[in-house]
Design a protein that fits this description.
The protein is of the alpha/beta class. Helix content is about 45%, strand content about 15%. Helix 12 packs across helix 13.
Length: about 700
């Protein structure tokens, strides 16, 4: 388009997507943004016939735009209103990499210098920072991208109070930039919309540092003092299992503290000692589904056992189960029992054979079948990872398995990881008594320093870590090893860490003052660092990321294939997985490669945006002509019920949870059915008035399930 050259950064980026950007509503966000207002008072009363002033205005616009773009910002507007001629630029509205405060400050300093060079006699600048609404407003035929919020008004007020040919910045800008820019405190001022008097700040000059090159971090596995006891206890549990004493270990700790890294390190050494490793992952969405944490474990165990004697490789659980029956390792009852955990192995007709069986007897029968294959895989390490609760049926099965394993499958270690100490049902309370309890805490500051030394490859004891570098990494990472790695990697990419030969310290440095690269302040928000690799994604791919964050940490491509018709969802997920490394794929299952990235993307969405996404998902399923009962059965109804609930469609949520409960009841999975009916009753109370008969149905069904479980 010929007029593209005249558009600002934000408008050009959006227009470039054209019709492909169908979900613009998802690009509206609350984001931390820095705003610069530049008042060009020489142009307040411009005469259209004054060619000299018109030329000056054009030169000013080109110069200020060039500075804005060089500092990773975007031009918002150049206006003529009650404030006169005002140039507005924003920082942090369209990327997740830069430190908006620092960039805006440097941009304002360069603008001030440029306006002096253009011989402007009257101008002033104001800079502020805070959370603003960034997105499109207005009808489709005349929409505009806006940045709105109190901080926009504050920047305008500071511009109005700034001395002639000078700049005022807010305290937040000062706080986030004072380590990199010299400031002078202004006299106390008072502005409209803010009570009382306060000090603003006047930027003076950049703080320079010397520049040298260092190597990339190797990200080694380093045992910190606080992790040594955890490692010892997990290794001890492994040795107990090797000595024919079945063991279970609970590893708990907050997000990103290294639980998976610790478990994987022990699993790696266990594998070298002959252990077979079976792993599964669960999320909070799976706590209602009976035996869900064990599905991947049992599938992998059947395939591994079948491959021990099969001449042709087997990579499918259905084929593996049939092969085990043919080889008389399983009988038909065993196949039905495995179908209770892995639904694809047995159909509803076979599962009906479990009709009337007591839940305790059913659990014992499943363990009988499970031990038939696990005993061939010893020594065995079973890892159940995730951030969600484990359902009661799985706890009962694990308790029975550990009880029986001493006689029939002694070389087994079960590791359960979770964010909080696991909630174990009373029926499996013996697990807690006999378990190894391991809890991880954030790194202390001295451990952050040790990890920094390891990441930077500092082995010489005479070389120390500068306090300023340690403080900023400790402040940003909050003791999380993953975040420490992210901060260090980001700083090295920006050439911000140097070795000072004179003081023998690894320290932070600033880039050359003349450089256009001003991303020299480490972002305070870790999401800026985590999302930096995705800055160049097209808006449709960003939309797919945001939808995926609403669906959950892991999801099944078959379940969400209905989103392909209107949104082309799964092809975008495939592209994000293959080209950008956002997801890991195992069969039809997709999982975010980094949980930190998943949570950073999820944090970008406002509550009403999440609600709209869930409504969109529900609508896509309703409009689909696919036979939903053929797609993962009860899993589908449970997940669709959750989407209805998050979309605040209480009637839809009630109906879907009832369907999920009916299916679980039909397969004699009374634990799961009772959970589904309880959810249905909860949403029924929020739905519109229903008939007495309709209100009683879920309660009657729940009573039937509880009676079966008694």
């Amino acid at each position: 388009m010929p007029f593209m050259a005249y558009l600002g950064t934000l408008a050009a980026r959006r227009l470039d997507q054209g019709a492909h950007n169908a979900m613009t509503i998802l690009l509206n966000e609350l984001r931390p943004v820095a705003i610069v207002f530049a008042g060009l008072h020489d142009l307040d009363d411009i005469d259209p016939r004054d060619t000299a002033l018109l030329e000056l205005m054009n030169d000013a616009f080109k110069m200020l735009s060039r500075i804005t773009h060089a500092c990773n910002g975007a031009v918002r507007d150049m206006l003529f209103d009650d404030k006169g001629c005002v140039f507005i630029s924003v920082f942090g509205a369209h990327t997740h990499e830069v430190n908006p405060c620092f960039d805006a400050t440097v941009s304002a300093m360069r603008m001030e210098s440029a306006l002096r060079d253009l011989n402007f006699e009257r101008f002033s600048l104001g800079v502020s920072y805070g959370e603003c609404f960034c997105g499109e407003v207005g009808p489709s035929i005349r929409s505009d991208y806006v940045v709105m919020g109190p901080e926009v008004n504050m920047a305008a007020r500071l511009m109005g109070k700034a001395p002639n040919r000078s700049t005022l910045v807010s305290k937040r800008i000062f706080t986030h930039s004072k380590k990199f820019v010299h400031f002078h405190k202004s006299e106390e001022i008072q502005v409209k919309g803010k009570d009382g008097f306060f000090h603003a700040y006047i930027p003076q000059e950049r703080i320079d540092r010397q520049s040298v090159e260092i190597s990339e971090p190797s990200q080694p596995f380093v045992i910190m003092p606080s992790r040594q006891d955890a490692m010892d206890r997990l290794v001890e549990a492994k040795q107990r299992a090797m000595s024919d004493r079945p063991t279970i270990a609970f590893v708990s700790g907050g997000p990103f503290l290294g639980k998976s890294r610790l478990i994987n390190e022990v699993a790696s050494s266990a594998s070298e000692e002959g252990f077979r490793i079976l792993k599964s992952f669960r999320t909070s969405l799976d706590s209602f589904t009976s035996f869900f944490p064990l599905r991947q474990i049992v599938s992998a165990a059947m395939i591994a056992c079948a491959n021990m004697t099969s001449r042709a490789p087997i990579d499918d659980e259905i084929v593996a189960a049939k092969y085990l029956v043919d080889q008389n390792i399983f009988n038909k009852t065993d196949k039905v029992n495995m179908g209770s955990i892995v639904p694809t192995v047995a159909d509803a007709q076979l599962l009906s054979l479990l009709s009337g069986m007591n839940p305790k007897a059913r659990t014992k029968s499943i363990v009988d079948s499970l031990i038939k294959i696990l005993k061939f895989l010893q020594p065995l390490m079973v890892i159940l990872e995730g951030d969600g609760d484990i359902d009661p049926s799985s706890w009962s099965l694990l308790a029975e398995l550990l009880y029986r394993a001493g006689r029939e499958c002694p070389k087994i270690l079960i590791v359960v990881s979770s964010r909080d100490s696991p909630t174990i049902t009373s029926a499996a309370s013996n697990l807690r008594k006999n378990a190894k309890q391991i809890k991880l805490m954030p790194f202390a500051k001295n451990e952050t320093e040790l990890y920094l030394r390891a990441l930077l490859g500092v082995k010489d004891e005479s070389v120390s870590i500068d306090g300023r570098l340690l403080d900023v990494v400790d402040d940003r990472a909050n003791g999380c090893p993953l975040f420490i790695e992210c901060v260090v990697r980001w700083a090295l990419e920006k050439s911000m860490i140097e070795y000072a030969d004179g003081s023998k310290k690894m320290s932070l440095k600033m880039l050359d003052k003349r450089s256009d690269d001003v991303t020299a302040a480490i972002p305070r928000e870790l999401s800026n660092i985590l999302l930096a690799p995705f800055n160049k994604l097209s808006p449709p791919l960003w939309d797919a990321l945001k939808i995926a964050s609403c669906i959950g940490y892991s999801f099944d491509a078959d379940l969400y294939s209905t989103l392909n018709q209107g949104l082309d969802f799964m092809p975008k997920i495939e592209e994000l997985s293959e080209k950008h490394g956002c997801f890991e794929k195992c069969g039809s299952q997709f999982r975010w490669k980094q949980q930190a990235v998943y949570e950073a993307v999820k944090s970008l969405l406002m509550v009403n945006q999440r609600q709209k996404i869930h409504k969109m998902i529900v609508r896509a399923f309703e409009q689909s002509k696919i036979n939903v009962d053929a797609i993962k059965g009860g899993d589908f109804h449970r997940l669709l019920g959750r989407h209805c609930a998050l979309a605040e469609d209480w009637t839809g949520a009630f109906e879907e949870y009832m369907k999920a409960g009916d299916r679980a009841k039909a397969t004699f999975n009374f634990n799961e059915a009772s959970k589904m009916y309880e959810e249905a009753i909860d949403f029924q109370a929020r739905a519109k008035q229903q008939s007495f008969r309709s209100r009683m149905v879920p309660t009657i069904n729940l009573g039937t399930c509880l009676r079966e479980l008694a």
